[in-house]
Amino acid sequence: MNIYIYDSYVGHKKYQSKIAKIETRITDLGLNGKIIRLGVMSSIYNSIEGEVQKGAKNIIIVGNNNLFAQAINSVAKLKSLHTTVGDIPLGLIPIGKKYNSIAEYLGIDYEENACDIIAARRIKELDLGMINKYYFLTQATIPTKETIIEIDKNYSINITEPGEIIIVNLPMGIELPNEIKANAQDGTLELFIKTKKLNKLLLNKNKENKSVFSFKELQITNPKYPVIIDNSLKINTPVIIKIAKEKINLIVGKGRNF
Amino acid sequence: MFNNKEDVNVSVKDAETIIGPSIKIKGNFHGQGNMIIEGIVEGSVKTMNRLLIRDKAKITASIEAKEVRVGGEVQGHIKVGGYLEITSTAKIFGDIETSEISIERGAIINGKINMIKEVKNSEKKQ
């Protein structure tokens, strides 16, 4: 059975006609299933766990990056706890363009057009990053300021210019150096450090400095800033980041960027 | 492989690690793939593949790699299984062990150079 999990914001009046069109298209394509409307206090983990135990065939999120990231976390966590949880695919019907960058990267069209992608059921198995007990699909970011990085306990990295640290699983919206080939199917994570020397006289002419390291496990500490995963969830340091044992099956579109 | 500039460019098209100019590494930095160093490294650097030390890099470490191109400053022992290219901007303070070498005019080397015989795969099998 297909399980559709609606984010709470899609219940807003302005999305009513869009949701109606999606439901019509789902019926036309013969993809009907159970609809779960999440409230502010609802737990997506409990919802997914319950449906997986009842034999759900596909889990489809109707929402944006935030709920999709939570669903990925829930499915990966279930896989780690119960070996009986199979490779249940996770799909997305993105509602609204503002916080739906993951859908775009996966080649999933917006709203009712996404239903055809769900129908095509093009599945890709992707790696996941793990930060403490959380999973992430795309990236984890933190500013360089006051950040201490220790990699594989063999060496430490000191960053001398201000910038951003990005742990990359799926390189979405970032320009890695040409020499680096990173993707979410290679079984590794990349540490990408992007810095810029501050020079007030040459404000726009400063060249960006880029560094990249492959790693198995790293530790990040920052007394001031948290790590942000998948552009949605903040996690306070110290954190240990590594590639997760669990992988995720996602329904993707033809126009995906990988 | 590092015999001309075109080859050098080819060799870094696929790198595992890039240490940019704003980075300082302390410890034992060991990898499997190609490496490019533009920053500061203190400790040891080791890779099974190629290592490119760019002009502004400063390395206080022992180095071991299959092939190396040095354009920056190195203080420490350099051990290369294959070919070592030293460019005009290089400053090396330490001993060198390699099987093939080229040194461009202007390079500074303070240390012994010991030429070793490269062990080819066919010889290893015998």
In short:
Chain A is α+β, with helices and mostly antiparallel strands. Chain A is built from 5 helices and 18 strands. Chain A is globular, with a radius of gyration of 20 Å.
Task: Record the SSE blueprint.
The complex is a heterodimer of chains A (258) and B (126).
Chain A: E1 2-6, H1 16-28, E2 33-37, H2 44-53, E3 58-63, H3 65-81, E4 90-94, H4 101-105, H5 114-120, E5 123-126, E6 129-131, E7 134-136, E8 139-143, E9 148-151, E10 155-159, E11 163-168, E12 189-196, E13 208-215, E14 217-221, E15 227-229, E16 233-235, E17 239-243, E18 248-251
Parallel strand pairs in A: 1-2, 1-3, 3-4
Antiparallel strand pairs in A: 5-18, 6-7, 6-17, 8-11, 8-15, 9-10, 9-14, 11-12, 12-13, 14-17, 15-16
Helix pairs in contact in A: 2-3
Chain B: H1 5-11, E1 17-19, E2 23-31, E3 35-37, E4 40-47, E5 50-53, E6 58-65, E7 67-70, E8 73-75, E9 78-80, E10 83-86, E11 91-93, E12 96-98, E13 100-103, E14 108-110, E15 113-115, H2 121-125
Parallel strand pairs in B: 1-3, 2-4, 3-5, 4-6, 5-7, 6-8, 6-9, 7-10, 8-11, 9-12, 10-13, 11-14, 12-15
| Strand order of the biggest β-sheet of chain A | 7-6-17-14-9-10
CATH topology of the largest domain in chain A: Rossmann fold
Helical/strand content category of chain B? mainly beta
Shape assignment of chain A: globular
